[in-house]
Amino acid sequence: xxxxxxxxxxxxxxxxxxxxxxxxxxxxxxxxxxxxxxxxxxxxxxxxxxxxxxxxxxxxxxxxxxxxxxxxxxxxxxxxxxxxxxxxxxxxxxxxxxxxxxxxxxxxxxxxxxxxxxxxxxxxxxxxxxxxxxxxxxxxxxxxxxxxxxxxxxxxxxxxxxxxxxxxxxxxxxxxxxxxxxxxxxxxxxxxxxxxxxxxxxxxxxxxxxxxxxxxxxxxxxxxxxxxxxxxxxxxxxxxxxxxxxxxxxxxxxxxxxxxxxxxxxxxxxxxxxxxxxxxxxxxxxxxxxxxxxxxxxxxxxxxxxxxxxxxxxxxxxxxxxxxxxxxxxxxxxxxxxxxxxxxxxxxxxxxxxxxxxxxxxxxxxxxxxxxxxxxxxxxxxxxxxxxxxxxxxxxxxxxxxxxxxxxxxxxxxxxxxxxxxxxxxxxx
Length: 429
Ligand code: SF4
Fold this sequence. Notes:
CATH architecture: Alpha-Beta Barrel
Strand order of the largest sheet: 2-1-3-5-6-9-11-12
CATH topology: TIM Barrel
Distance between the termini: 59 Å
Bound molecules: iron/sulfur cluster
């Protein structure tokens, strides 16, 4: 059976759960929110907490509709991130095809005309909570408990926005209860029933989750390590937990693995972009991974291109070369004109020459991601009536965070060596 071009294996094999227990096809799909809107959702949720179990979700109206439309060869708007290569050039759908493409016949055999499937998820992206020890400027409260605490402590939460209701103490308690009871039960059942073939450990910070260490040890103990592929998206600040070493005790005992270690710049600029990063410690932990890696796909640098990160492109290229590793690159998602951390906040006449310069010295994914910026609308082009107000708001937020956090550099310092960019930044008021 031939796979329709835009059909994806994910709705038959994979399931995603956000730290607020929102369910989606995958972390890249753009779907309506259930309860609380996440950053790439297409519409707001109810603002109330009505959690959905995996059982309820897997063959829900929505999932059945997705499967029917995919099997009919439709191009789904929910999958525009893959269809239009919005975040990076190599798309998530291809990953699922590579790993699970052999199950196409099973899909056709197991799916009823209404879109229900008898297949069950074997590939998991369960984010057990938003627990994270970092406050990266590309991130936010939904994905980082440190962000959440900072927002609350500094009265920065907009309580009038229903999407923030999940941070209310009463709802927070309900979410925690659902996570501790239902979510743990779902995942633990899959582990015990040998139904975990692929895990994407993301967070929050997955290596801060005690669940990571507990479940990975259990999978190995059950003898299922040899069929497990584990991916990590981690800040790599911690590689051991209660005497268990990630490399020695976990990764050497599973079929294959990949660590995408997030780093958005080197040295103090990297530490500014990713508050919590200790650059030397990161490098040390990364090199330990390189010592046990058996192929070059296992340890990768994962770079998210930001405005301050533009000044770090050369340094990141050199670092990847020095370490002998591949670098993944994507650009920060800019869904509104106040995301001044995006290079697309720059006006076209400043952005394009800078991109050309950097792309000329880059290769692979980094070069692709840079050049893509020239085909994307800048904020001024996308939101001609709102972008100036957006930039003002975004800059005010950057300055506010600089007051709250202690870093040895500021955005002004970082942009300083680029006079045209600095002048543009200083004029935002
Ligand atoms: S096509 Fe892309 S966005 Fe859609 S489910 Fe597959 S991986 Fe997710």
